[in-house]
Structures
1.
Amino acid sequence: MINKIIHTMSFKISIILVLILALATGFIWWKYPSVFGADGLKCTPNIPTITLIPTSGLAQPVVPVPKLSVAPGQSINFDVSVKNNDYACAAEYYDLSGIVPDMPSGWKAQFNYPYVIIGSGYARTAIMTVTPPFDASGSYNIGAMATGRNSKLSSSGNSNILEVKVTGLVTTLTMDKASYTIKKNSTSPTATVTYTQNGMPMKDIQAEFKLAYPDGSSQNVYTYHFTDRFGQVKWKFPIWFADPKGTYVVTVSMLDRGYPIAGAMTTFQVQ
């Protein structure tokens, strides 16, 4: 009789322990799903894989990617593919950031999504826009990083870094003559600025001219006119008989959306 009671109590205790264990497991699964993953399997976090493919500057994506060129202050876009290599884990939040090793001041790397949510074994793509500052020159390595919020694992290896060359822009400022003589009331010198990149004319860039007189005074007299299809702006201005004789200085600043990106200077004589 006693053995039967003990056996019955042991069975009931076993049932209670199993229920407690199941409830505890269910609570952990509900509260911390990344421990077991979506299918109840053991979650194994792994480093994500990142791939960069430029979507601007090339007619179509090319692998391996050639060296890219971009003008100072102008943007270049990349498709940034992030693959979640976790095994049996819940979907991961990956925070995205751009990388320019030893990034000089003024570089910008922006994403259309600051983060992506990706299930185990799947991939998603975001767009990264990289913009060098207006005074940048030389070659830079561009990359991207994805960091998991739960796993704390990130990827930014050399396989996802591309070289972007910031090309110099050439501004040429010339006068139609080196010297002018005022015979009557005035004379009208003509300044011509030519703006090119890699020998190609740059259209629709703003030009701001400044004229400095021999006596040290100066004035801004011709501003915010755009280069034509030849990359040129011509400025014809009067020099009056009463104006001082000597060396005049003409400077030009090229502006992109109001920001100076290049400039040039030249002189001429008035007799």
2.
Amino acid sequence: MSKKKCPECGFEWDSLGDHEHVSAAPQAQEDRYRAEVADMYYRFGWKWVALAYMTGRVVSQGRQLPSGFLEDLTLARTNLESGCSSVCDITADLRDLENKLFEVLLHVSEGEVHAMLELISKAMSGTLQQKDVDLTPLKVVLADTTIPSVCSRR
């Protein structure tokens, strides 16, 4: 029996069998997809931080938050960190929080609205950092004021 040799990998087999290459493309695609999702969670984590920071500014000025806002903020963080919610659900949760907070900030000042939009822009571009925000004013109304763990996975 003669042997065949694969010109791609050098594998030798007898003429009765066959040799196939398993494509690495599906694994590379999967790795790329996972990296993209991790990057989205990273950016959404920082968007949560921006919203929490602006919430702290509202609270420190003695302003009223919409009913259930802090519970929604906490739930959004939990959904973000658990990895059990879809990117679409997290996007919707954060957008809802942003809209509610935007309405409150309209009654505070134009500068506060601009500050929030700037922070969200930095968060979504991946440039917001811990030194840019201080979540300590939230300690009086929120149990966990640490930076979400998804913000350190980059």
3.
Amino acid sequence: MKSLLEQIQSRCKHFNGLPHGTERDSKRCNAGVCYYDLMRVQELGGLGCALRMPCTGREPGTVVRGQTVVACEHRAFPSEAEVQAEIDEHERLVQTLKAGKSPCCSADIDTRHVIQEGQHKNHGLRFYSECKRVVFMV
């Protein structure tokens, strides 16, 4: 498995997540490229289409589990400063969560929905107390 540094360095700086659900045929990267069109889903089908993405560090032309990685003219990698900024932000998020705080609003994590007793004790949703986003579920 690649380290966090290797993952960030090899990922296209325009990549903003895999398309899924209702956005799957219209989601665009930060450079404006439609993932659905890039992966040639209409032509090659949807099965294994994410393996054709050059966004996550695979070299165009490489064959991964029977799928050939496509080329993208907008593919660009982050600078050393951008990589360091993302690593610093990741570390800040980890430390904030370890402290039991929300990384987006610095509020305490609300654990009122966590099961307090029985077989499933300590399982359940954790919410941020101010923005009400789900932190994680155990």
4.
Amino acid sequence: MSDQQRVQRYGKAIWETSRADESTISVTGADIVARAVMAVADAEQAELQAELALFKRGGKTLGHTIEWQCKAALDATGLHHLIDEDGDGDWALVWEHLAELKPRAEAAEAKVARVEAALRLLDGEHITPQGASILRAVMAEAQS
């Protein structure tokens, strides 16, 4: 809340409190201001509590997301033995291994695409010469 908004809020609260107490002679200006300040402070406290609850929910969601990602990284790499039950361990090595999986996965996807391309070149029951050359290249790559 900006200072200008805060001043407007206090001014409004003072105005409303003083109007409500116009007929009461015993209420002094200081009492009116004190009541107005307390009313605004109570409203601000309620807003801050609502904001705090929102941040707590966000933090909880973020914590669950990070925990899920860490478990997925461990499952993908198979490096569960590097991390203790309390979550301490060599996470840098886990993330390095995870990063190394991408090129291997991309290479495997490329091989599958080449085999699928060769299979599309089937001529009835016989593979075409172009399809055969693709399959030979994939098989040679797999053996090396």
